[in-house]
Amino acid sequence: MGIRLNVNGVVHELDVEPDAPLLWVIRDELNLTGTKFGCGIAACGACTVHVNGKAMRSCSVPVGSAANAEITTIEGLGAGALTTVQEAWIEHQVPQCGYCQSGMIMAVSAFLAMNHAPTDDQLAAAITNICRCGTVPRIRAAVRALAARKDTGAP
Amino acid sequence: MMTRRKFLIGGATAAGALIVGYGLWPSRRLARANLLAAKSGERFVATWIKIANDDIITVVIPHCDMGTGIFTSLSQMAADELDADWTKVRAETAPADPLFANGPLAEGFALNEENMTVDSIPTFLRGTAANSLRIIAEYMDVQTTGGSSSVRLTGVYGMRIAGAAVREMLVKAAAARMSAPVEAFRTEMSRVIHVASGKSFGYGELAVEAAQYSPSSHPKLKTKSAYKLVGKPIQRLDIPAKVNGTVHYGIDTKLPDMWYGAIRISPVFGGKLVSVNEARVAQSRGVKQVVRLDDAVVVLADRFWRARNAADALEPVFDNAGNGDVSSKTIRNLHLTAMKNGKIKQDLSTGAGADALKNGTLVERIYNVPYLAHAPMEPVNTTALYNKDGTLEVWAGTQDGLGSRAFCAKTAGVHLDKVTFHLLPSGGSFGRRLPGQWNFLTYAVKTAMAVPGVPVKLVFTREQDMQHDFYRPNVTSRFKATVDKDGMPVAWVNDYTTAHDPNSEAHIFYGVPNQAYGAVKVATHVPTGPWRSVEASWHGFFVESFIDELAQQANRDPVEYRRALLKGKPRHLATLNLAAEKAGWGTPLPPGRGRGIAMVECFGTVVADVAEVEVTDDGALKVHRFTSAADCGMAVNPDGFKAQMEGGVIFGLSAALYGEITIDQGAVVQQNFPDYEIVRLAECPAIEVYIHESYAPLGGAGEPGVPPVAPAVTNAIFAATGVRIHELPVKNHSLGKAARQSTSL
Questions:
Q1: What is the pTM of this model?
Q2: Cβ distance of A99 and B235 shorter than 8 Å
Q3: Of B552 and B144, more confident
Q4: What is the ipTM score, two decimals?
Q5: Do B684 and A124 make contact, defined as CB atoms within 8 angstroms?
Q6: SS3 of B430, please?
């Protein structure tokens, strides 16, 4: 019993089963509801968070496996300020219902940290999140604009 | 007489009449509105419009935000008439209270539909007419968001009127202060300015006095040339909160000491719960209670994942309500039998109708579209608290807050006054959260009533959401046409299956002299409901596929063939031409590629799409490009309108390529996204959207982008391969070289 979880720089001691999904621990134990439930089987990406900087679909990550890792959720992404990715999302008016966008932004941010100027094909191969409203054309446009900028990279 | 439901959900087109407008609240209603929805330092000046001391104007929207941008476009319409400083305009959701019903707008719209205008109402009765509409509204539990109607109804007949009326009231207040005539003032950037002296007042300082005046139901409205906000691509008000995770959707509701519910519903629709193995979860950590419902079982626990794991372990047994043998195949046979032997209810007939089939060459085709799930990204969910004093409080995202409140009251068997309903933003809806489809409210209220005093949050897993939806119907449609020596249609006879009434969306805008339509009812146990673009989602595919086949048979270019049938239809012709021109219709393409065109009118908007596809010899399909042209009269927010069209292409493409809900042993086969694919970045074509302004009455935006997508793609596939697809989705068809000869008709 007792799992140490470092989320957005805050360490929590949690009394939860090690096989509890990280998503639900983040949402229901820590009340960080920006991370969303979409499918429960890592198929849609709405629950994407960063685990040690890597994009992970938290609905399918047992919390025990993330103990002591550095976890970042959408709430902790920019440390109080908007990131370049979030700014691009506003500039390109990406979200519609917005429900998938936390996961999209987390997935794209981790990807751009590794590849500052991806091609469309590289982006499409890396980002397989689902948006039901159909914002993918604008996501592509926003990432193209980021890729064309020199200061991309700060996730 | 148009029924309310038909009107609100099924869509209708505006008839270009003068604006009658909504009867704004008389000033005595403001006190109650302030009690319900005004914070300290702000007050309502008229219906939907609050002005605070610090000049912040809040437009209180009688709709839900499900992502279509209406909070912004409706605020633009009110703020423009109000001459407001846009940087000080906010939007918020109206309470689910009869005072904020939007039903009267529908009534006003219906009046206009019947070509009733302000001029047709005697002057001395005008106020009464408007007032009676308001009174009707207060007894109508309608606050719907659907039918692509928010801008067309609430905007045109409500927000503009309210904004203009409030502007006049603010001017009156300034005039009274200066003892000057109202003509001496102008308004700009949230200030009333005395023209001669230059003295000015902020809206905030005039608000209290302005609220004393009665709002005019027929205030002077701006003409188009005076718009400062309407027609501009203004950034959406809701987007900043949607990039940092701070929007509070229904699923994010959390109350002290709340229990979480996971549900298992009978896989076969309507099946009754027979047994559960409660012993398997009795010792599970956090499990509080198992609630048995008629056709479902809910596990309540202190955390959602514990409830869900316990629900998985329960092994519930349901009966099959006599539907255990129903499959997609048996339903298909029902359709074909009904088409052949069933009683076809005749709908519209023009010219000689079906009798005209006697002359000319007969062409006959049958098409089919499958059931589809809405699958919004936020699975349906509801939080409910049934108090021991018999009051009920409910939190959810639905497409009708006030209707949901009445529905919960009815479900609980309590008076409306005992129920509070908190309408929250929806993570997508697409029709899923409209009235008639509120199984999530029903289960949550019943569960809450089993544990009085405990707040319960019931969340459907994706599997439950997908298997217990109200699906876009599976529809079969048959066409018979005769053509003249040039291959142009002379008779057009279309019969199709329906669960309800005939659909006006089957009626074509093409100039065919003899037309007849009929619908045959087919009843199944599969629940169906409106799905983004409703009837147009199937008739669009049927009509635009068949017209393409007629063009093919006539050896004529599909665009040119359609043009020849659009005499007297300037909006349609212009939209078709715009799409064709921008897509480079007729210019050479690399081998393996083809273009297809389709055009559909629904919810007052005409959309023409050109799809450009590539099919390889081994049958791999890639949709490279979509060119959309749309005539919505005028776009209130052109960028927001384009976003809806782009989203419509992706939504329509997902359905066309992959979308299919199938039935086996009475239950839905698909469970989650791997079985119900959505177009992602990798399959996302290049999309261009062009707006054609015709100054027709404002058309809808949320839905009209969807219907032309599937036929544009299948017509393009035909152009590329010679394979004609009569049944969706495309994924079920072989498109490779080997399959091509055998499948083309």
A1: 0.94
A2: no
A3: B552
A4: 0.97
A5: yes
A6: coil
